[in-house]
Protein backbone atom coordinates (compact mmCIF):
# COMPACT_ATOMS: atom_id res chain seq x y z
CA UNK A 1 0.00 0.00 0.00
CA UNK A 2 2.89 2.33 0.82
CA UNK A 3 4.48 1.76 -2.58
CA UNK A 4 1.12 2.40 -4.24
CA UNK A 5 0.86 5.78 -2.50
CA UNK A 6 4.49 6.69 -3.24
CA UNK A 7 4.08 5.67 -6.87
CA UNK A 8 1.01 7.85 -7.35
CA UNK A 9 2.61 10.81 -5.60
CA UNK A 10 5.46 10.45 -8.06
CA UNK A 11 2.92 10.13 -10.87
CA UNK A 12 1.73 13.65 -10.08
CA UNK A 13 5.29 14.74 -10.89
CA UNK A 14 4.61 13.59 -14.48
CA UNK A 15 1.86 16.19 -14.72
CA UNK A 16 3.94 18.80 -12.88
CA UNK A 17 6.73 18.27 -15.42
CA UNK A 18 4.34 18.63 -18.34
CA UNK A 19 2.87 21.76 -16.79
CA UNK A 20 6.24 23.32 -15.96
CA UNK A 21 8.31 22.61 -19.07
CA UNK A 22 5.82 21.06 -21.52
CA UNK A 23 7.58 17.68 -21.62
CA UNK A 24 9.37 14.99 -19.66
CA UNK A 25 6.29 12.89 -18.95
CA UNK A 26 7.47 9.63 -20.51
CA UNK A 27 10.97 9.80 -19.02
CA UNK A 28 9.37 9.94 -15.58
CA UNK A 29 6.49 7.50 -16.10
CA UNK A 30 8.56 4.51 -17.24
CA UNK A 31 11.04 4.41 -14.30
CA UNK A 32 8.21 4.95 -11.80
CA UNK A 33 6.19 2.05 -13.23
CA UNK A 34 9.20 -0.29 -13.43
CA UNK A 35 11.17 0.49 -10.27
CA UNK A 36 8.44 1.67 -7.90
CA UNK A 37 5.30 -0.17 -9.01
CA UNK A 38 7.12 -3.33 -10.12
CA UNK A 39 5.60 -3.49 -13.61
CA UNK A 40 7.62 -5.51 -16.19
CA UNK A 41 9.44 -3.17 -18.61
CA UNK A 42 7.57 -4.16 -21.78
CA UNK A 43 4.19 -3.75 -20.10
CA UNK A 44 5.39 -0.51 -18.49
CA UNK A 45 6.38 0.94 -21.88
CA UNK A 46 2.92 0.25 -23.31
CA UNK A 47 1.27 1.68 -20.19
CA UNK A 48 3.52 4.76 -20.43
CA UNK A 49 2.25 5.35 -23.95
CA UNK A 50 -1.34 5.38 -22.72
CA UNK A 51 -0.61 7.60 -19.69
CA UNK A 52 1.51 10.19 -21.49
CA UNK A 53 -0.70 10.11 -24.59
CA UNK A 54 -3.84 10.81 -22.58
CA UNK A 55 -2.24 13.61 -20.53
CA UNK A 56 -0.80 15.13 -23.72
CA UNK A 57 -4.24 15.04 -25.34
CA UNK A 58 -5.66 16.90 -22.35
CA UNK A 59 -2.82 19.39 -22.70
CA UNK A 60 -3.88 20.11 -26.29
CA UNK A 61 -7.14 21.69 -25.09
CA UNK A 62 -5.75 25.10 -23.99
CA UNK A 63 -3.53 25.24 -27.09
CA UNK A 64 -6.55 24.45 -29.26
CA UNK A 65 -8.53 27.26 -27.66
CA UNK A 66 -5.61 29.62 -28.30
CA UNK A 67 -5.52 28.45 -31.96
CA UNK A 68 -1.96 27.13 -31.55
CA UNK A 69 -2.58 23.70 -33.11
CA UNK A 70 -1.74 23.21 -36.77
CA UNK A 71 -3.94 20.30 -37.82
CA UNK A 72 -2.50 19.96 -41.32
CA UNK A 73 1.07 19.65 -40.04
CA UNK A 74 -0.08 17.37 -37.23
CA UNK A 75 -1.65 14.91 -39.67
CA UNK A 76 1.25 15.04 -42.17
CA UNK A 77 4.05 14.70 -39.61
CA UNK A 78 1.90 12.56 -37.33
CA UNK A 79 1.27 10.00 -40.08
CA UNK A 80 5.02 9.33 -40.26
CA UNK A 81 5.45 9.17 -36.48
CA UNK A 82 2.41 6.90 -36.09
CA UNK A 83 3.79 4.49 -38.68
CA UNK A 84 7.15 4.53 -36.91
CA UNK A 85 5.56 4.03 -33.49
CA UNK A 86 3.57 1.01 -34.69
CA UNK A 87 6.64 -0.51 -36.33
CA UNK A 88 8.76 0.21 -33.26
CA UNK A 89 6.22 -1.49 -31.00
CA UNK A 90 6.10 -4.55 -33.27
CA UNK A 91 9.91 -4.73 -33.18
CA UNK A 92 9.79 -4.47 -29.38
CA UNK A 93 7.51 -7.53 -29.16
CA UNK A 94 10.06 -9.71 -30.96
CA UNK A 95 11.80 -12.25 -28.67
CA UNK A 96 15.27 -10.93 -29.62
CA UNK A 97 14.46 -7.50 -28.18
CA UNK A 98 14.92 -7.97 -24.43
CA UNK A 99 13.54 -5.73 -21.72
CA UNK A 100 17.11 -4.94 -20.61
CA UNK A 101 17.97 -3.68 -24.09
CA UNK A 102 14.90 -1.44 -24.10
CA UNK A 103 15.76 0.03 -20.69
CA UNK A 104 19.38 0.64 -21.73
CA UNK A 105 18.23 2.40 -24.90
CA UNK A 106 15.80 4.41 -22.79
CA UNK A 107 18.62 5.48 -20.46
CA UNK A 108 20.78 6.55 -23.42
CA UNK A 109 17.96 8.69 -24.81
CA UNK A 110 17.50 10.23 -21.38
CA UNK A 111 21.18 11.14 -21.28
CA UNK A 112 20.94 12.83 -24.68
CA UNK A 113 17.82 14.75 -23.65
CA UNK A 114 19.47 15.81 -20.37
CA UNK A 115 22.62 17.09 -22.09
CA UNK A 116 20.50 19.01 -24.60
CA UNK A 117 18.42 20.62 -21.84
CA UNK A 118 21.50 21.60 -19.82
CA UNK A 119 23.18 23.09 -22.89
CA UNK A 120 20.12 25.13 -23.80
CA UNK A 121 19.77 26.46 -20.26
CA UNK A 122 23.46 27.30 -19.80
CA UNK A 123 23.09 30.64 -21.60
CA UNK A 124 20.17 33.08 -21.62
CA UNK A 125 18.25 32.83 -24.89
CA UNK A 126 15.79 35.37 -26.22
CA UNK A 127 12.15 34.35 -26.30
CA UNK A 128 12.11 34.41 -30.09
CA UNK A 129 15.28 32.34 -30.36
CA UNK A 130 14.51 29.23 -28.32
CA UNK A 131 16.09 26.95 -30.93
CA UNK A 132 19.48 28.64 -30.88
CA UNK A 133 21.26 25.44 -29.84
CA UNK A 134 19.67 23.25 -32.51
CA UNK A 135 21.55 22.80 -35.80
CA UNK A 136 20.05 24.68 -38.72
CA UNK A 137 18.83 22.37 -41.51
CA UNK A 138 20.58 22.35 -44.85
CA UNK A 139 18.17 20.80 -47.30
CA UNK A 140 16.36 21.59 -50.50
CA UNK A 141 13.21 19.65 -49.71
CA UNK A 142 12.80 19.97 -45.95
CA UNK A 143 9.49 18.12 -45.89
CA UNK A 144 11.38 14.93 -46.79
CA UNK A 145 13.61 15.42 -43.75
CA UNK A 146 10.51 16.17 -41.69
CA UNK A 147 8.91 12.86 -42.65
CA UNK A 148 12.19 10.97 -42.13
CA UNK A 149 12.66 12.41 -38.66
CA UNK A 150 9.03 11.67 -37.88
CA UNK A 151 9.55 8.03 -38.78
CA UNK A 152 12.66 7.81 -36.60
CA UNK A 153 10.99 9.52 -33.65
CA UNK A 154 8.02 7.19 -33.99
CA UNK A 155 10.20 4.07 -33.95
CA UNK A 156 11.84 5.27 -30.72
CA UNK A 157 8.41 5.94 -29.26
CA UNK A 158 7.28 2.40 -29.98
CA UNK A 159 10.53 0.85 -28.74
CA UNK A 160 11.01 2.66 -25.44
CA UNK A 161 7.88 4.73 -24.86
CA UNK A 162 9.55 8.14 -25.22
CA UNK A 163 7.07 10.64 -26.62
CA UNK A 164 9.72 12.52 -28.58
CA UNK A 165 8.58 16.04 -27.70
CA UNK A 166 12.20 17.19 -27.41
CA UNK A 167 12.71 16.19 -31.06
CA UNK A 168 9.26 16.99 -32.49
CA UNK A 169 9.22 20.69 -31.57
CA UNK A 170 12.51 21.62 -33.30
CA UNK A 171 11.56 19.48 -36.31
CA UNK A 172 8.29 21.35 -36.73
CA UNK A 173 9.95 24.76 -36.37
CA UNK A 174 13.11 24.19 -38.41
CA UNK A 175 11.83 21.79 -41.05
CA UNK A 176 8.12 22.54 -41.12
CA UNK A 177 8.31 26.33 -40.74
CA UNK A 178 5.77 26.21 -37.91
CA UNK A 179 5.82 29.09 -35.37
CA UNK A 180 7.09 28.12 -31.92
CA UNK A 181 3.74 28.47 -30.12
CA UNK A 182 2.01 26.34 -32.75
CA UNK A 183 4.85 23.80 -32.67
CA UNK A 184 4.38 23.23 -28.92
CA UNK A 185 0.62 22.75 -29.21
CA UNK A 186 0.94 20.63 -32.36
CA UNK A 187 3.62 18.43 -30.77
CA UNK A 188 1.24 17.47 -27.95
CA UNK A 189 -1.32 16.28 -30.50
CA UNK A 190 1.37 14.33 -32.39
CA UNK A 191 2.53 12.70 -29.14
CA UNK A 192 -1.07 11.58 -28.56
CA UNK A 193 -1.15 10.11 -32.10
CA UNK A 194 2.15 8.31 -31.47
CA UNK A 195 0.90 6.86 -28.22
CA UNK A 196 -2.20 5.38 -29.85
CA UNK A 197 -0.21 3.78 -32.68
CA UNK A 198 2.50 2.44 -30.36
CA UNK A 199 -0.05 1.02 -27.94
CA UNK A 200 -1.87 -0.77 -30.77
CA UNK A 201 1.45 -2.37 -31.71
CA UNK A 202 1.83 -3.78 -28.18
CA UNK A 203 -1.82 -4.74 -27.71
CA UNK A 204 -2.29 -8.51 -27.53
CA UNK A 205 1.39 -9.23 -26.89
CA UNK A 206 1.68 -8.12 -23.25
CA UNK A 207 -0.37 -7.99 -20.07
CA UNK A 208 -1.72 -4.64 -18.92
CA UNK A 209 -2.84 -3.29 -15.56
CA UNK A 210 -5.77 -1.13 -16.64
CA UNK A 211 -6.67 0.11 -13.14
CA UNK A 212 -3.08 1.26 -12.54
CA UNK A 213 -3.05 3.07 -15.88
CA UNK A 214 -6.29 4.88 -15.04
CA UNK A 215 -5.11 5.94 -11.59
CA UNK A 216 -1.78 7.17 -13.02
CA UNK A 217 -3.63 9.19 -15.67
CA UNK A 218 -5.74 10.84 -12.95
CA UNK A 219 -2.67 11.58 -10.79
CA UNK A 220 -0.67 12.99 -13.72
CA UNK A 221 -3.61 15.10 -14.87
CA UNK A 222 -3.97 16.58 -11.39
CA UNK A 223 -0.25 17.38 -11.38
CA UNK A 224 -0.53 19.55 -14.48
CA UNK A 225 -2.51 22.16 -12.51
CA UNK A 226 0.20 23.14 -10.00
CA UNK A 227 2.81 22.68 -12.72
CA UNK A 228 1.19 25.26 -14.97
CA UNK A 229 0.74 27.61 -12.01
CA UNK A 230 4.37 27.36 -10.82
CA UNK A 231 5.66 27.91 -14.35
CA UNK A 232 4.61 31.55 -14.03
CA UNK A 233 7.08 32.18 -11.19
CA UNK A 234 10.10 29.98 -11.97
CA UNK A 235 12.49 31.03 -14.79
CA UNK A 236 12.40 28.64 -17.75
CA UNK A 237 16.20 28.33 -17.93
CA UNK A 238 16.43 27.30 -14.28
CA UNK A 239 13.64 24.76 -14.76
CA UNK A 240 15.28 23.13 -17.77
CA UNK A 241 18.69 23.01 -16.11
CA UNK A 242 17.34 21.44 -12.91
CA UNK A 243 15.27 18.93 -14.85
CA UNK A 244 18.29 18.12 -17.04
CA UNK A 245 20.41 17.21 -14.01
CA UNK A 246 17.53 15.21 -12.61
CA UNK A 247 17.36 13.25 -15.88
CA UNK A 248 21.10 12.56 -15.63
CA UNK A 249 20.60 11.04 -12.20
CA UNK A 250 17.65 8.88 -13.29
CA UNK A 251 19.49 7.75 -16.44
CA UNK A 252 22.50 6.73 -14.34
CA UNK A 253 20.20 4.75 -12.05
CA UNK A 254 18.61 2.91 -14.99
CA UNK A 255 22.02 2.13 -16.48
CA UNK A 256 23.25 0.69 -13.16
CA UNK A 257 20.12 -1.43 -12.78
CA UNK A 258 20.52 -2.95 -16.26
CA UNK A 259 24.32 -3.18 -16.57
CA UNK A 260 24.38 -6.95 -15.99
CA UNK A 261 21.34 -7.76 -18.18
CA UNK A 262 19.33 -9.25 -15.30
CA UNK A 263 16.78 -10.87 -17.61
CA UNK A 264 19.41 -12.78 -19.52
CA UNK A 265 21.02 -13.90 -16.26
CA UNK A 266 17.68 -15.06 -14.93
CA UNK A 267 17.02 -17.13 -18.04
CA UNK A 268 20.49 -18.64 -17.96
CA UNK A 269 20.00 -19.74 -14.32
CA UNK A 270 16.86 -21.66 -15.30
CA UNK A 271 18.40 -23.43 -18.29
CA UNK A 272 20.66 -25.82 -16.26
CA UNK A 273 17.73 -26.76 -14.02
CA UNK A 274 15.59 -27.62 -17.05
CA UNK A 275 18.39 -29.70 -18.54
CA UNK A 276 18.78 -31.66 -15.30
CA UNK A 277 15.03 -32.26 -15.09
CA UNK A 278 14.92 -33.43 -18.72
CA UNK A 279 17.89 -35.76 -18.17
CA UNK A 280 16.40 -37.21 -14.99
CA UNK A 281 13.02 -37.80 -16.65
CA UNK A 282 14.53 -39.86 -19.47
CA UNK A 283 17.12 -41.78 -17.43
CA UNK A 284 15.38 -42.59 -14.16
CA UNK A 285 14.00 -45.85 -15.59
CA UNK A 286 17.55 -47.19 -15.86
CA UNK A 287 18.12 -46.66 -12.13
CA UNK A 288 14.79 -47.93 -10.85
TrEMBL record:
This is Probable membrane transporter protein. Its main location: membrane. It comes from the Bacteria. It is found in: Cell membrane; Membrane. Keywords: Cell membrane, Membrane, Transmembrane, Transmembrane helix. Pfam families: TauE (PF01925). The chain crosses the membrane at residues 43-61, 73-93, 99-119, 153-176, 183-204, 210-231, 243-260.
Amino acid sequence: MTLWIVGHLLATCIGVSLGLIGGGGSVLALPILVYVMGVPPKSAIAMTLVIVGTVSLLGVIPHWRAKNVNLKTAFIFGSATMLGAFVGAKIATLPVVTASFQMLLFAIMMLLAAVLMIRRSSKPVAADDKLAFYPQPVCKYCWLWLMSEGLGVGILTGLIGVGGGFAIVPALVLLGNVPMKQAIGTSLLIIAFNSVAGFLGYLGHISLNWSLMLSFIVAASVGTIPGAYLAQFVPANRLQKSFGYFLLAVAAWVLVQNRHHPQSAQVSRHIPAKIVQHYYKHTKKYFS
